[in-house]
Specification:
Elements (H helix, E strand, L loop, with lengths): L1 H9 L5 E6 L2 E6 L2 E6 L2 E4 L1 E7 L6 E4 L4 E4 L3 E7 L3 E10 L2 E10 L5 E8 L12 E3 L2 E2 L11 E2 L2 E5 L3 E7 L5 E5 L7 E8 L5 E13 L3 H10 L5 E6 L19 E4 L9 E4 L10 E5 L7 E9 L15 E6 L16 E6 L4 E7 L3 E6 L2 E12 L11
Antiparallel strand pairs: 1-2, 2-3, 3-4, 5-6, 5-11, 7-8, 8-9, 9-10, 10-19, 11-18, 12-13, 12-15, 14-17, 15-16, 16-19, 17-18, 20-29, 21-22, 23-28, 24-27, 24-29, 25-26, 25-28
């Protein structure tokens, strides 16, 4: 009787599991699969989702999947008319192998990803050392980072290096989801399914630790230094609350107190003839040579009526130029002295540009505000933003 019952119990969906294997712990609770290493969560959720065309609704997930496991291997299985999925985790002393095999039916995308709690990888001084592929990049409190694609994502701490590597199919992207997913970032791949498709994803989470005392001292010193240091650049009247103080006002510009982003006012440009009318609001901002800068503005183009002419009269963009003390615009070798971000659409958008110091604003309507941040560090920057 006992031999008959045990196999049946192993095939039942488990309500909760916290199984230790080597230095790992595999958790399965409330349909969430997570992974710990030496008592610290490294993956807060392994997520699989199938969606209808254009993400109009969900059609598959691993909720209530049947779990079986032995000493080192954990297998989740679920089959519906939309997909037949098997997820396998194999725990070894310094590595967890992750294998997903899906027979997916059309139509609509499947997403497979990992929610990573970045707060668990913070070093002394609240410093993070992540990298995508070979490149380090900063993840800072209150500053969003753009999506980054790569075959791996890793986190360096003095005592251990964690690395998640894609060794199978799919293009994985690291996304900043901290504001939406309780401080987690997400490493995710999207598979488009228009015909019956087999999806096979293979990844590994590996750890490197056991550094000697001399190496630990060096790593503690190095990894306590931030990749990038930020300093907010103060721009007076950046939201046009005090009219055009600090700005170059033109005849066809005015302050609009009926439209705003985060303050009480905005600047409006009315362009009747884009061939002859002014399309800019400008100002000069002092900068420090050798530093990296990011400028950001919020522009409304929604419901702006277009005027007839040879050039478009609606749209928006942020133009960033830099100059010397005499306001000349030298062109450094192999560089441009102008960064342009333009967008033509009926929507509200935030524009970002890098380098400075002359910012021009171009729009068919309002320019509610502009922000800048200065950064300096041992690694080159790409784009950075300033939180609201």
């Amino acid at each position: 009787m006992r031999k008959t019952i045990l196999p049946l119990l192993c095939c039942l969906p488990l309500i909760g599991l916290a199984q230790k294997v080597h230095d790992w712990q595999v958790n399965y609770k409330n349909n969430v699969i997570s992974l710990d290493y030496k008592g610290k969560t490294v993956i807060s959720a392994i997520a699989l989702g199938g969606y209808k065309t254009n993400y109009s609704g969900g059609r598959f997930n691993l909720n209530d999947a049947v779990l079986t496991h032995n000493d080192e291997t954990f297998v989740w299985k679920k089959k519906t008319d939309q997909a037949d999925a098997t997820l396998t985790l194999v725990c070894q002393p310094k590595k967890v192998s992750i294998d997903l095999l899906i027979g997916a039916q059309p139509d609509g995308p499947f997403e497979f990803g990992f929610h990573i709690p970045v707060k668990n990888f913070v070093n002394d001084g609240d410093v993070l050392y992540p990298r995508v592929g070979r490149n380090f990049f900063p993840i800072d409190e209150g500053i969003d980072f753009p999506h980054r694609g790569g075959k791996s994502v890793s986190f360096e701490q003095p005592e251990v290096i964690h690395k998640l590597t894609n060794i199978g199919s799919g293009n994985y992207t690291l996304q900043d989801m901290r504001k939406r997913m309780n401080g987690n970032i997400r490493y995710i791949a999207v598979y488009q399914v228009n015909t019956p498709t087999t999806i096979h994803a293979q990844l590994e989470w590996t750890v490197e630790d056991g550094f000697d005392e001399e190496a630990l001292k060096l790593r503690r010193r190095q990894l306590a230094q931030p990749i990038v240091r930020y300093k907010k650049v103060e721009i007076s009247n950046n939201g046009f609350e005090d009219g055009f103080g600090g700005w170059d006002k033109q005849k066809n510009t005015d302050v609009d107190e009926t439209v705003s982003h985060s303050g009480k006012a905005s600047a409006k440009i009315v362009v009747n003839d884009p061939m002859t009318d002014n399309v800019y609001i400008t100002r000069h901002v002092p900068v420090i040579g050798g530093a990296n800068y990011t400028a950001e503005c919020f522009v409304k183009t929604l419901d702006v009526a277009a005027a007839d002419g040879r050039m478009p009269s609606v749209g928006a963009g942020l133009i960033v130029e830099w100059a010397g003390l005499r306001r000349r615009l030298p062109r450094p070798p192999r560089q441009r002295n102008r960064v342009v971000r333009r967008f033509r659409h009926d929507a509200c958008r935030t524009f970002r540009g890098q380098a400075l110091p002359r910012t021009r604003r171009r729009s068919g309507h309002e320019r509610p505000e502009i922000k800048m941040v200065q950064s300096d560090g041992r690694h080159q920057l790409h784009r950075r933003t300033v939180s609201e």
